[in-house]
Design brief:
The complex is a heterodimer of chains A (372) and B (335). By secondary structure, chain A is of the alpha/beta class. Chain A is 30% helix and 25% strand. Chain A has 11 helices and 18 strands. In chain A, the strands form 4 sheets. Chain A has an 8-stranded mixed sheet with strand order 9-10-12-11-13-14-17-18, sandwiched between helices. Chain A is globular, with a radius of gyration of 21 Å. Chain B is an alpha/beta fold and 335 residues long. Chain B has 12 helices and 14 strands. In chain B, strands 3-2-4-5-7-6-12 form a 7-stranded mixed sheet, sandwiched between helices. A 5-stranded mixed sheet of chain B has the order 9-11-10-13-14, sandwiched between helices. In chain B, strand 10, helix 8 and strand 11 form a beta-alpha-beta unit. In chain B, helix 1 runs parallel beside helix 7 and helix 3 packs parallel to helix 4. Classes of the chains: A alpha/beta (372), B alpha/beta (335). At the A-B interface, helix 7 of A face strand 9 and helix 9 of B.
Chain lengths: 372, 335
């Protein structure tokens, strides 16, 4: 029996509704492998590459270069030799019906909302159908919920998802510094979660967000169903503290771009929208002070200040660690620093942002960890 | 994040800074809703509704209506700035700045230089500009080139509600005279604006859209025209990058040169008349410092060298369009 797979316009970020095909990297008739870069799509926020979701032959390009189409539209068809042209034509026709049947003219565009918590507001972006479990995304130092641009929509196909702006980031209120800052950040996040998803949760967290997630998981083990930590702090002492101070000091686009480039193995992944979005929250009054306070609890002259190994070791739920092998901010820790119950995936060719640099690999890993 | 209009964003900035700094005062015609409002104070919030609510919040000592006497109240504002206040003077239409050019050009702009840097002139002159509102030749000019030409003045020309708030807060906190230009047709545009206070530094261009085939440098309201053109170009397979300088003086030369070096094809879009303009100034800058990177002639899309017509069809023809921008970009995209 022949296999026919769709290549569709993906959804990068919850506000994306359409994309323009700027380049096909394979021709009709070419053999393509699963994970191979197949086409480039431009949106108003980002230009990125779509990888082949299946191996086979690129039998038909449906959307030519220069075409703008809604999220979910059929861009091309991958099939094996056994598939007849009639079968492929029928598949294309059926796909047009499928897109139209969604009844979602905005392709699921959603907007974030502010949740009042004790010391201000926490900004959250929710999508996916509410169910018994929700997947919660926590970004790292200097990030915001757009860190999950390439991940949240993919996970939302099967779960309710909630991406959160940590205090002092994105559109969430900054918190004043203090020895109990991490605990107050955790309290604010938990208060927001209680309001939007009082269910069991799967935590997916990046870098500094990993420390927040570890505290939540350790204090609410009955509620946390799984933990996926991407380059978390707290599993070793080594880190690039200059990144923290340079990030706080960068008040303009050009120097900030130079700082953000250190996050990626391939700096061309950084868009102007990403730089401008970061500057937006950095410019808000109170935020530089709040970031300085957070930086102080992350690292000092001797290296990282947090330790999450003990908290992770006590968890019964699945714990997955994901690292890019070219991470120069929080390098891959030594084996001795890793808890025995954690599984580690190292992604070659990725820096400190594998969730953006190797999105499909990370999405698959998150999905597997959620299944337990 | 909250969606707010350009008008609301400006109002928030004024509210915030007047509450934060008691030295900030405002003066101008009809700021408090004066004549024609049946004696009801603050009925309009100024001719364009930007100052609504300020009178009630800060009182007539700090929000002052003036007679129709731009030369007098701009001079008074410049003097007040020298004495330690931080005045915001509103000229209803920038076209009227002509009668107070001595105060602006010969006085306020010169104080810092003439007094060896010891005099501060924290004066903001807000004014509306631009065509499209059927207001006739004397109420619709885009005069940013004139002010940009004068050393000692800073010139701000925001294109989005977000920028309007952040740039106005920066302007009020600046110790030099700032000409702050608001396009009449932008007041009702809506965008994301944080509730809190924030400032955007001057000489910090915004990359409004990434692209690799053509660089469109667009000023003020023309940024939205460039964005419409970029959508047309994308449908034709041409990827356009858009940069909004935000301030024409000081100008973020580094960003303009960086992107010119990277892309090599440039269209400059400005609603002002073309002769001796910001568009020609930027064009000369790029030709001087990035000539080797240019792959095609720099294209200018501007209004014609004519007064703004009053006849609606002629006024529409006067304003640069997305089609004209797309045509210019297409003409150099493949060269």
């Amino acid at each position: 029996m022949s296999t026919i797979e769709a290549v569709t316009v993906p959804k990068w970020g919850m506000t994306m509704t359409e994309g323009t095909i700027t380049q096909w990297m394979a021709k009709e008739g070419d053999s393509v492998a699963h994970g191979q870069e197949l086409l480039e799509i431009e949106t108003t926020k980002v230009t990125n590459v779509v990888e082949a979701a299946a191996s086979g032959i690129l039998r038909q390009i449906v959307l030519k270069e220069g075409t703008t189409a809604p999220v979910g539209a059929l861009a091309g068809v991958i099939a094996d030799q056994a598939a007849s042209q009639e079968e492929i034509d029928a598949f294309i026709a059926s796909y047009a019906d499928r897109l139209g049947a969604s009844g979602d003219g905005q392709a699921g565009a959603v907007a974030p909302r502010a949740i009042a918590v004790g010391e201000g507001v926490i900004n959250v972006l929710e999508t996916g159908l509410a169910g018994e479990e929700a997947v919660v995304f926590l970004h790292g130092f200097g990030g915001d919920l757009s860190t999950w641009l390439f991940n949240q929509a993919a996970i939302a196909e099967t779960h309710q998802t909630i991406a959160i702006d940590l205090p002092g980031h994105g559109a969430s209120s900054p918190l004043a510094g203090g020895d109990d800052l991490l605990a107050r950040i955790v309290t604010a996040v938990e208060a927001a979660l209680e309001a939007v998803a009082p269910t069991r949760i799967h935590l997916v967290a990046h870098s500094f967000g990993g420390a927040v997630a570890a505290v939540i998981a350790a204090s609410q083990p009955q509620r946390v169903a799984s933990l996926t930590l991407i380059a978390p702090i707290g599993l070793g002492k080594t880190m690039n503290r200059d990144f923290l101070t340079d990030f706080i000091a960068a008040e303009r686009r050009r120097p900030l771009l130079g700082v953000l480039e250190r996050l990626f193995a391939d700096p061309s992944k950084i868009t102007s929208d990403m730089v401008e979005g970061t500057l937006r929250f950095k410019r808000l009054e109170g935020v530089p002070e709040a970031l300085t306070a957070i930086a102080d609890i992350i690292a000092d002259d001797t290296g990282q200040r947090q330790s999450i190994a003990e908290a992770l070791a006590g968890l019964k739920c699945p714990v997955l660690l994901i690292w890019g092998d070219q991470d120069h901010i929080v390098p891959v820790p030594q084996a001795a620093d890793l808890p025995a119950n954690a599984k580690l995936i190292i992604i070659p060719g990725a820096g400190h942002m594998p969730q953006m640099e190797a999105a499909s690999t990370v999405n698959n890993a998150i999905s597997e960890n959620i299944k337990g | 994040m909250a969606q707010k209009s350009f008008r609301q964003a400006l109002n928030e900035a004024l509210h915030f800074e007047m509450a934060r700094d008691p030295r900030v005062i405002m003066m101008g015609e009809d700021l408090t809703g004066g004549a024609g409002a049946n004696g009801v104070k603050d009925a309009w919030g100024g001719a364009f509704g930007v100052t609504k609510g300020l009178l009630g919040a800060f009182g007539p000592e700090r929000i002052r209506d003036t007679p129709i006497s731009e030369a007098a109240f701009i001079g008074a504002a410049a003097g007040a700035a020298l004495t330690g206040l931080r005045p915001i003077a509103e000229i209803m239409f920038v076209d009227f700045a002509g009668v107070c050019l001595d105060q602006i050009m010969n006085q306020a702009a010169k104080f810092r230089y003439m007094f060896g840097g010891r005099a501060k002139t924290p004066l903001v002159i807000r004014a509306t500009y631009g065509a499209g509102s059927r207001s006739g030749s004397q109420h619709t000019q885009a005069l940013h080139s004139i002010f940009t030409h004068i050393p000692g003045l800073k010139v701000v020309i925001p294109s989005t509600p977000y920028d309007a708030k952040g740039l106005l807060l920066q302007a009020i906190r600046d110790d030099d005279p700032v000409i702050f230009l608001e396009h009449k047709m932008l007041y009702d545009t809506v965008g994301e604006v944080p509730d809190g206070a924030y400032t955007i530094p001057f000489a910090e261009a915004r990359v409004a859209r990434d692209g690799k085939d053509v660089l469109i440098i667009a000023i003020g309201r023309m940024v939205s025209v460039a964005e419409e053109a970029a959508r047309k170009l994308a449908a034709d397979g041409i990827s356009a990058c858009i940069i909004d300088p935000r301030t024409t003086s000081p100008l973020d030369e580094d960003t303009l040169l960086d992107f010119t070096d990277k892309i090599g094809r440039v269209v400059i879009v400005d609603e002002a008349n073309p002769r001796c303009s910001v568009a020609t100034d930027i064009s000369a800058l790029l030709a001087d410092k990035s000539f080797d990177a240019l792959k095609a002639p720099i294209k200018l899309v501007t209004a014609p060298h004519s007064p703004v017509p009053y006849a609606p069809n002629l006024e529409d023809a006067y304003i640069p369009t997305a089609a004209a921008v797309a045509k210019a970009a297409t003409s150099i995209a493949k060269r």
